[in-house]
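STRUCTURE:
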């Protein structure tokens, strides 16, 4: 058991049989009353984000999670929005499939858990997968990922301004805004937390 005052961002714990990861921690105290601990958490089974409030003396069960580097294979989903990075042949179920490149063991994660991260997945990419009790729970993408620009308007020669943008489609189907000087076929870095252009890869 750990004190709720230790629930900083990134810490994992269990409550009522459900695993959570802390996204944000806040300590509040009203006058002479008991201090409250408010945390914003993500349910690692369902992907739901919610807020929990504890009194400062409360305790929760710490859980042990393990990160493993897995290779993304493909997606099976009833909605094509979940499978932007995958073959159109897989549209039956709502799962993303990963493989351990060392053991070739395959794992699946529900699209409900990683739907927000799905646009950044591409076949054969290596990602960190969080495991709890031998079960894959969620994925962690690097904050920056490199993609090739597949479609965009012609680049404006000599225009190095980064505050004027045009639409572009990346190799994984993701649509974003890029500066005018970016050309089709060039590679760029994208912020996986915001989906925004960062810089051109030289």
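SEQUENCE:
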């Amino acid at each position: 058991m750990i004190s709720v005052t230790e629930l900083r961002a990134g810490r994992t714990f269990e409550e009522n049989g459900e695993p959570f990861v802390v996204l944000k921690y806040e300590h509040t105290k009203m006058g002479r009353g008991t201090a409250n601990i408010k945390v914003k958490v993500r349910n690692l089974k369902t992907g739901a984000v919610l807020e929990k409030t504890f009194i400062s003396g409360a305790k929760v069960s710490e859980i042990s999670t393990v990160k493993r580097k897995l290779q993304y294979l493909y997606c099976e989903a009833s909605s094509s929005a979940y499978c932007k990075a995958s073959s159109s042949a897989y549209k039956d179920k709502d799962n993303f499939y990963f493989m351990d490149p060392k053991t070739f063991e395959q794992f699946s994660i529900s699209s409900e858990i990683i739907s927000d991260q799905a646009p950044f997945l591409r076949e054969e990419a290596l990602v960190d997968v969080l495991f709890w009790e031998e079960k894959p729970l969620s994925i962690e993408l690097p904050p920056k990922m490199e993609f090739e620009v597949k479609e965009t308007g012609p680049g404006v020669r000599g225009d190095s301004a980064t505050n004027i943008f045009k639409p572009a489609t990346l190799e994984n189907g993701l649509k974003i805004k890029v500066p005018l000087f970016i050309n089709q076929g060039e590679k760029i870095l994208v912020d996986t937390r915001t989906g925004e252009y960062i810089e051109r890869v030289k």
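REMARK: The longest strand covers residues 65-76.
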